[in-house]
Amino acid sequence: MAKTTRDHLVDTLEDLGEKNFKKFKTKLCDRKEEPRIRKGAIEGADNLDLTEKLISTYTEQGAVKITIEILESIGCAQEASDFKQNTGFNEQSAGGAAAAAAAAGGPLHMVGGQHFVDRHRTALIERVSQVESILDRLLERGVITQMSYSDIVAETGSVRKMRNLLMGPMNASGNLGKDVLYDILQELEPYLMNDLSKQ
């Protein structure tokens, strides 16, 4: 059976050895961007525990990206390269247009220093109707995990589902994840997006 992204992450962390694994955890806790993983949350964590923490905090796609960044920053270039190859990570897997924007100097869909999704959060919570279709596409692209997907689908009503999506997994996925959501909303809710873009 083919290995999953989670399996490759577990293996990569296991292969680091004690010294580099410790460096990896220190560097992870030193990250200033939200959401952050606190030192106390991973003290004594092994490679399995750390994998779960990374994926639950950043989603699978985000965990891969952050792992590669940290591996490169602690001098584990070969491990980073192998991990990239094993997971099939490339700039397109990080959100297509969003990755191109990052290469050009920043995320897409920013308005006055604030992401479109954040700026119009309340309107999106109240007015988006095709929540399940949006969730399907976010799961397909690896922006949200299967666990998050199941939790949100179990909620009653589109308002509660959208609130949970935006305040939980989308918050954790950062601007790259929000760029993917923006593109999905443009596809599924064009009239709403057109209206919001004029505000």
Question: Which descriptors would you attach to this protein?
Answer:
Death Domain, Fas, 199 residues, 2 domains, elongated, two-stranded antiparallel ribbon, mainly alpha
Structural description of this entry:
This protein is mainly alpha-helical and 199 residues long. Helices cover 70% and strands 2% of the residues. It is built from 13 helices and 2 strands; from the N terminus they run ααααααββααααααα. Strands 1-2 form a two-stranded antiparallel sheet. α2 (17-30) packs across α4 (47-73), α8 runs antiparallel to α11 (158-167) and α11 (158-167) crosses α12. It starts with a helix and ends with a helix. Residues 115-199 form the CARD domain. Pfam families: CARD (PF00619), PYRIN (PF02758). It is found in: Inflammasome. Keywords: Cytoplasm, Immunity, Inflammasome, Inflammatory response, Innate immunity.
Q: What's the short story on this structure?
A:
This protein is mainly alpha-helical and 199 residues long.
